[in-house]
Amino acid sequence: MQLDGFLFFLLVICLGYFAARLHLVKESAAEVLPSLLLNVCFPALLLTTFASVDRQTLLAAGLPALIATPVFALLPFLVSLFLFRRDEPERRALLRYISGIGNTSFVCIPLLRLFLPDEQMLIVFVHGAVMDLLIWGLHHPLFLGSGLRKNRQPLHKLLLSPCLLAVVVGTILSVTGMPLPSFLQFTADALATVVSPLSLLLIGILIQQYGLLAWRKDRTAILYSLWKVIVYPCLVFAALYFFLPLQSALILAILFGSPAPVTAVVWCKEYRRDTKLAVDCLIPSTILYFLVMGGALTVLTHLGILG
Q1: Which residues are within 8 A (CB) of 32 and not within 5 positions of it... i.e. 6 or more apart?
Q2: Where are the alpha helices (DSSP H) in 22-135?
Q3: Separation CA 115–CA 132 (nearest Å)
Q4: What pLDDT, in 10s, does the model give residues 245-301?
Q5: What are the start-end ranges of the H helices in the chain?
Q6: CA gap 30, 204 in Å, rounded
Q7: What pLDDT band is residue 46 in, cutting at 50, 70 and 90?
């Protein structure tokens, strides 16, 4: 079943790639799908997942991610403040952003849902929620080039984020034991089922638009991909192994190995940063993540360590 799921993962990405290459879908699909996923489908998935678990499971699964995520997301960011201080402004904000932030929504969730049960997926969702806080509260103002106090847009977007609201409502339902009305439950479940295929189609479309091998001469992109997908997850796992259960440490390590976020490309386009570097980091890190973490998850679930 895990092998079938992994092959499905790769096949849908290829389907998105060739659909775009053969002009079966318009280029504007890459602009529309992220908003649809983030504002409609992902909130439905989060709502159903959080609302369907009991309080003890929610606490046991979510607390490790709630504590570990800000620590291991901020550590590379703090190092990057020193490491990239002499880079050009167009590159500096981008490199600081992708050093600690990964593509949880469009890569990790679709991949991990193929292998993990709902109680383990809670770690993924809590990790993603904390990452959203960091994305809009810290990194977005840096992309804009203004101080946190001067820019209220990130806080506004954060508080009104459908994903965050879904987490809050789902948590309340879980704690109180109140079920969703049957028609809302059916609707949310139906929307949640399209998260994985739409996310994978989007990745295939993006790879086709920006070129599968356009990054191969970019040394920074190659080094970034190796660091983000292989080296840093190993360091995170080594640190968490002594404090968390084995399954939690493994899942968080896999999450911190997630590739460069799609938002990096979107923001670079919008704020006139180094878009080429963003794309060059996105594609190889995403491909490497599919291969390394997809293979690791297949082995770990086959051995019964995860899943």
Answers
A1: none
A2: 29-36, 42-51, 55-83, 89-100, 109-112, 118-134
A3: 24
A4: 999 999 999 999 999 988 888 778 767 778 788 889 988 998 899 899 988 998 999
A5: 2-21, 29-36, 42-51, 55-83, 89-100, 109-112, 118-134, 140-144, 153-159, 162-176, 182-192, 195-210, 219-226, 232-240, 246-256, 262-271, 275-302
A6: 10
A7: confident
